[in-house]
Amino acid sequence: MATSAARPGTVPPKDLESFQAHLNKSTRILALLGAGLSASSGLPTFRGAGGLWRTHDAVQLATPEAFGRDPGLVWQFYNYRRHMALQAKPNPAHYALADLARKKDGFLTLSQNVDGLSPRASHPEDKLKLLHGSLYDVKCSDFFCNYFEKNNYTDPIVPALAIPTDDSDPTTTEAIKARELDISDENIALPEIDYNHLPKCPTCKRGLLRPGVVWFGEMLPKDVLSDIDEWLTESDKIDLIMVIGTSAKVYPAAGYVDLARAKGARVAVINMDKKDQPASGMYKRDWFFEGDAATIVPELLKSVVGEITEMPDAAGTA
Ligand code: BJW
Ligand code: ZN
Fold it and tell me: Of 35, 169, 294, 302, which shows the fewest CB atoms inside 10 Å?
């Protein structure tokens, strides 16, 4: 396995050369994206540092059980994340991947991220498969109702979920008075939410709406899985899979690394943490690029996409 030595975040020239030589001749390429891709856009990851929301493990809040138990708390968590992701901007890695998708026809991106940053970087829609849904989709939580709304950017999603602001000090200026409080911090009081003020389904008028994301124990979207299956079965070979900013612990997403390997793919991992390797480990012809995806990915893809300079944000149009 080629590994980046001494300084994390810099790509050793020999590894860069061998990776780009392989990338340039690759025609069937996959990328598996995780929360680390958006970390330098300011969005927290799920595991490790930043994986706590107040006193709650973010992974524990991402479950149907948590929603059933306390829909107000779970909506506060998701409304907060919708708000933060709307403030965030795609970073150079989102743009480089979007550009690679335009330049290499046989490149498919499988994203576990729900933050909307890849669509906002104008990643071609048909080349981007959102495994875990989107923060901006909402659907009815009633089993018998199939209400589903795409691209709902209303922030807050209902008035009761507005992020509280610090207007406690009458001597502060208007601008400071309007400062939003960081409700991810357990020391900031969380407003009580009346059940009746949570978002309701406009169709059945019975169910609560819920975020259109995939929680533990839930099936991934059928159309997404079948599109990926179709791509996988189009050919017996895959040249390369890039595993970017993910702990690769959640299935079935993580399983695509092994599926790609089984079709001959070489694996390139881009991650801040050397310990976060795919379950099958690293093979001799793999690469581990240690450091921030926002810096490393554009560097790696430069031989195909060139320098990433312009970064227009298709906010709200994704
Ligand atoms: C940086 C960086 C920087 C930081 N640069 N890097 C087979 C075996 C075992 C278990 C299962 C299995 N099949 C299914 C399961 C069960 C379960 C599962 O996988 N459990 C595991 C935990 C063991 N899977 C499911 O339940 C899935 N459904 C399913 O399988 O349905 C079929 C079924 C149903 C019913 C019965 C039986 C079968 C659904 C999984 C849904 C996951 N949902 C979440 C929440 C989405 C909504 C939301 O966002 O709130 O998805 S959980 C969470 O984890 C989120 C993420 O997409 C996902 C992956 O996390 P990710 O992105 O890897 O983040 P982190 O934090 O883990 O890692 C960040 C990485 O970045 C780290 O490595 C850092 O080092 C790195 N990093 N900064 C580069 N700047
Ligand atoms: Zn409904």
Answer: 169
